[in-house]
Amino acid sequence: MQLDVMTDDSIDTSRVNVGPAERWLSVVAGGALAAYGARRRDVPGGLAAAAGAALLYRGTTGYCPISERIGRDSGHGYGHPAFADGGSDTREQLGGARGIHVEDSVTINKPVAEVYRFWRNVENLPQFMNHLQSVSMRENGVSHWVAKGPAGTRVEWDARIINEIENKVIGWQSLEGSTVSTAGSVNFDETPRGTQVRVHLQYNPPAGKLGAAVARLFGEEPSAQIREDLRRFRQLLETGEIPTTAGQASGRGRETGRW
Amino acid sequence: MKAVCWEGTNNIRVEHVPDPEILNPRDAVLRITSTAICGSDLHLYDGFIPTMRRGDILGHEFMGEVVETGRGVTNLKKGDRVVVPFTIACGQCFFCRQQVYSCCDNSNPNAWMQEKMYGYTSSGLFGYSHMMGGYAGGQAEYVRVPFADVGPFKVPDSLTDEQVLFLTDIFPTGYMAAENCDIRKGQTVAVWGCGPVGQFAIRSAFLLGAGRVIAIDTVPERLRMAIEGGAEPLDSMDPDLFEKLKVTTGGIGPDACIDAVGMEAHGAHIDSYYDKVRTAIFLATDRASALRQAIHCCRKGGVVSIPGVYGGFVDKMPMGAAVNKGLTLKMGQTHVHKYLPKLLRHIENGDIDPSFVITHTVAIDEAPHMYETFRAKKDGCIKVVLKPH
Q1: B9 and B47 in contact (C-beta within 8 Å)?
Q2: Nearest-Cα residue of chain A relative to residue B98
Q3: What are the C-alpha distances in Å from B36 to residues A252, B250, B261, B326, B364?
Q4: DSSP letters of A101-156?
Q5: What is the pLDDT of residues B326-342, one digit of tens each?
Q6: Among A37, A70, A93, where does a domain finish?
Q7: Residues A235, A149 within the same domain
Q8: Which residues in chain B are contacts of A245 at CB distance < 8 A?
């Protein structure tokens, strides 16, 4: 994922009315939608591709004509001076140096419908995503997410699925006004080796203590964490369990299973 | 329970440790009736395998009775007598479906360690370092077996422990080494190393149609055992080894060569001294003189098959010989699950009785002493079976 597509100086930043997380998500979801649509080569595919292109435009320029029409602006008020200054540093725009953006993929030897269904039930995610404590469904498609912060703290937010094509893609995003600005998307592709799952996750930590907690959700190496998450996802779906040595006997007594 | 624990290089002790428990739905716990020391355990004893920790329970060749099963295991019941492959396989991943069980994607809880070293992970193994999963081994009174609905194979009561125990590793390992040679009827196979795996490679080569097998070692009782298996002996310390192999094959060379020695080879050639120096100062990790000889001696267009264990990096590989002679190199940890049923039938049919390889049977308390005896090849030691109960 190239983030620097968002730094085009030719863009009139006064027109920016889409927030950093939303822009990022628009690029991801738009790209996925456009790729999906282009591959279908039929009328619904063409529509999907067009919608994807619009999202891509919205993401890369930070300008959304629809938002402007309805008077919505998520592009200001995030407290990122660099962004207001004209967006010269995308890392700043996307949550500063502490922002987390990870991307990885895994191939699972199961039919795409089964893999999609498991992920679509977002309450399943904490079974393999170690940074999550729980995800519970609330009303109107809103889900409540609780993540394990450092030193026993908890970080919570509400999110909703904002993009969904069955057996193809799921995108979600924290609600406007959440303390944590986060978004993610998963693409599912059928391959001869099984279902290829591609994941993007973004966390934009707010300022202050909570921000520090969010920044440390994934520990020192976010990309290594997500790789382990996806490995557990594959293990769980393919074998029904996650292999472990935690609790086994050894000359050191009962093991923790940690190296 | 009692268990044989690795307490550091050259330090193995029998310790009292907690009994194993079911940790996952597809687990089983076995009461071990027989367990063996493998030649590859000596690599641990000698400190050649990284990511060992003090207190690790050793052992990957074991069999016993099922005493407990997890709720996901429906094909086994209490009292079943089973042998357990040393490679742990989930049975459901892409690799297990291709029957390359030792490449199982899902059975290694420490996959990230191997990924750092090898790019991708292999299956978990019992009692063979944390990089290989950190699973407690079976040189103990009891053992926990993960994916027990795939791994353990029931064995008939008509066969003794000694006849079926080696289905867990060395028989399938020798057999896969021979099968990898792609033997056509009447061909000649040369086997470096007449330890237990070499012995099974020799007998398997004949089972697969080899006309001649040449056994290369320098330990008299091992060569004698090879001769009993039908092989022709050659001394591995003979400086004219290449010439002798060439002459005895009519100037052609062996059709296939098996390296059943692995990373701790002792040779008589200059390269083996070079290896000793390089590994001593950590410029290489594995000594590979048997492998180099196998590549050098193999006929053009032949196969070099490597059941011997290598863990890290090999220096001075004769790639020029391998490329210009058009050799095929085949290797890998054994896909035990694939071979086990077929080899059990061979035993039941009386084609082979694997107990021939056993030289010592002792109580588990004797294990530390037997590691030393086995490594020093003292007392005619070729294969040690431990009785935990």
Answers
A1: yes
A2: A193
A3: 23, 40, 18, 38, 10
A4: EEEEEEEESS-HHHHHHHHHSGGGGGGT-TTEEEEEE-GGGEEEEEEE-GGG-EEE
A5: 999 999 999 999 999 99
A6: A93
A7: yes
A8: 23, 109, 133-136
The CATH code of domain B2-169+334-387 reads 3.90.180.10
Are A196 and A188 in contact by the 8 Å Cβ rule? The answer is yes
- Say yes or no for a CB contact (<8 Å) between B17 and A238: no
User: Which CATH number characterizes residue A154's domain?
Assistant: 3.30.530.20
Q: Is residue A216 part of a domain?
A: yes
> B296 touching A, CB under 8 A?
no
Tell me: the pLDDT tens digits for B172-191? 999 999 999 999 999 999 99
Question: Are A225 and B106 contacting, i.e. CB atoms less than 8 angstroms apart?
Answer: no
Q: How far is A116 from chain B (nearest CA, A)?
A: 18
Spatial distance between the Cα atoms of B252 and B300, rounded to a whole number of angstroms:
8
DSSP for B74-132, written as a single string: -S--TT-EEEE-SEE--S-SHHHHTT-GGG-SSS-TTHHHHHHHHSS---EEBTS-TTT
Q: Are strands B384-387 and B360-363 parallel, antiparallel or unpaired?
A: parallel
Let me know if residue A141 belongs to a domain: yes
Show Cβ contacts of residue A242 under 8 Å, excluding neighbours closer than 6 positions: A128, A232, A235, A236, B24
A74 and A144 in a common domain: no
CATH fold, domain B173-331, is Rossmann fold (3.40.50)
Q: Are residues A60 and A107 in the same domain?
A: no
Q: By the CB < 8 Å criterion, does B95 face chain A? A: no
Token code pair at residue A189: 């592709």
Distance from CA of A129 to the nearest CA of B (A): 15
Pairing between β-strand B303-306 and β-strand B256-259 as defined by DSSP bridges: parallel
Give dist(CA A183, CA B281) in Å, integer.
Answer: 51
Assess B23–A contact: CB distance below 8 Å, yes or no.
yes
Q: With an 8 Å Cβ cutoff, is B18 touching chain A?
A: yes
Contacts of A56 (CB under 8 A, 6+ apart): A26, A27, A30, A31, A34
* Any A CB within 8 A of B2 CB: no
- Of B85, B90, B68, give the one whose Cα is nearest residue B77: B68
Domain tally for chain A? 2
Instruction: Tell me the residues of chain A between 76 and 115 that have a Cβ less than 8 Å away from chain B.
Output: 107, 109
Answer yes or no: do B17 and A253 touch at CB < 8 A.
Answer: yes
Task: Match 């009994």 to its residue by tokens.
Answer: B19
ipTM for this prediction: 0.89
**Residue A178: helix, strand or coil by DSSP?**
coil
The domain ranges of chain B are 2-169+334-387, 173-331
In a shared domain, residues A223 and A165: yes
**pLDDT of A143-187, one tens digit each?**
999 998 777 888 899 999 999 999 999 999 999 888 888 899 999
**Do A134 and A169 share a domain, yes or no?**
yes
Looking at the complex, does the CB of residue A244 fall below 8 Å from at least one CB of chain B? yes
Shortest CA gap B65–chain A (Å): 19
Dihedral class, residue B147 (left if φ above 0, else alpha if ψ from -120 to 50, else beta): left
| Residue A107 covered by a domain | yes
Instruction: Give the pLDDT of residue B104.
Output: 98
| Section B53-64 average pLDDT | 97
Flag whether pLDDT at B300 surpasses 90: yes
- Count of CB contacts below 8 A, A vs B? 104
Alpha-carbon span B139 to B118, nearest angstrom:
28
Confidence band of A27 (pLDDT split at 50, 70, 90): low
